[in-house]
Recover the amino acids of this structure.
């Protein structure tokens, strides 16, 4: 059941991409977003969750019109070993409720 829940989240996040369409990398401005405003997401997550110790890491992606417009990688994948999070890190999601 847990696998189904995470699969639904991924599908919903990319539902603006139609089957067979290519998902490409882009810049925020190319899809009508602001780089400066998107950087506010990093500041908020860093201060509210990473620095406060509520989360060890966060990976944020903003997709628009089937294009990846923004990616941010914050924090550590393994806090005890000091291993930084990477953009291609895998996550194990135990509960979505």
């Amino acid at each position: 059941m847990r696998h189904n829940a995470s699969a639904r989240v991924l599908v919903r996040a990319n539902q603006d991409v139609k089957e067979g369409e290519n998902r490409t990398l882009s810049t925020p401005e190319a899809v009508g977003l602001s780089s400066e405003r998107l950087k506010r997401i990093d500041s908020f997550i860093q201060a509210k969750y990473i620095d406060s110790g509520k989360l060890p890491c966060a990976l944020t992606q903003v997709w628009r019109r089937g294009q990846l417009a923004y990616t941010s990688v914050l924090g550590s994948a393994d806090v005890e070993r000091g291993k930084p999070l990477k953009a291609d890190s895998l996550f194990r999601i135990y509960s979505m409720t």
